[in-house]
Amino acid sequence: MDFAAARLNMVESQVRPNKVTDAAVLLAMLDVPRERFVPEALRAVAYVDDDIAIGGGRRLMEPMVLARLLQIAAIRPGETVLEIGTGTGYGAAVIGKVAKRVVALESDPALAGAARRALADVGAANVELVEGPLEDGWPGGSPYRVIIFGGAVERIPHTIESQLAEGGRLLAVIAAPGEPGRAVLAQKIGSVMSRRTIFDAAVGRLPGFAVEPGFVF
């Protein structure tokens, strides 16, 4: 299979027509071989317009959704980004093309191992893979100018919001049980987090972010 041609088709047919015009994001997605970040048996469908199962109940985010999140994040070359739930590392590799440094957090040891191998394989030297509970973020590297979630969550813990730098941007797909997901941009100004919904998005969920049920008599 001609993966380079499939990658070009992904950008021209899926990403660019969906309001993604940021040249840096488009070039990053053209440069990173997505097929290296999916199970070998699924490499032939690595560039489909959908998310892909990568094991452990997790899914690789649809290319168009990732591209739109990155465009909204407006990552600058000197910034450090935290990606929560990196899975096999594809999002981190793409982010690494536009950011100074990426901290890629993963809680699943098998996925972390796959990400470590894939990131080394594509030469993503500015991506640091770390392992730990996703809901804790990675305070050791904070504050971050940008925080991006690699899947849908029901809530954004204050612990993670506190790791965002003043003026920083946080991107997440928020999805309540049984409801469609919505991509949200949160920005920190002073001690206040402002939020606004950008677009609807259906992506795989990350573990550890369910809303705890209220107490019932």
Characterise the protein shown here.
By secondary structure, the protein is α/β, with parallel strands linked by helices. The protein has one domain (3-200): Vaccinia Virus protein VP39 (Rossmann fold). Helix content is 26%, strand content 28%. The protein is built from six helices and nine strands, in the order ααββαβαβαββαβββ. Strands 5-4-3-6-7-8-9 form a seven-stranded mixed β-sheet, with helices on one face. It has a two-stranded antiparallel ribbon with strand order 1-2. Strand 7 (164-174) and strand 8 form a beta hairpin. Helix 1 (3-15) runs antiparallel to helix 2 and helix 1 (3-15) packs across helix 3. The longest helix is centred in the N-terminal third of the chain and has 13 residues, at 3-15. The chain is globular. The termini are far apart. The model has no long low-confidence stretch (mean pLDDT 95).
- Helix/strand order: HHEEHEHEHEEHEEE
Would you report the number of β strands?
9
In DSSP terms (H or I, runs of 4 or more residues), the helix count works out at 6
Largest sheet: 7 strands, mixed
N- to C-terminal distance? 59 Å
CATH topology: Rossmann fold
What proportion strand? 25-35%
CATH superfamily name?
Vaccinia Virus protein VP39
Mean pLDDT: 95
List keywords for this structure.
single chain, globular, 9 strands, alpha/beta, Rossmann fold, 217 residues, two-stranded antiparallel ribbon, 26% helix, seven-stranded mixed beta sheet
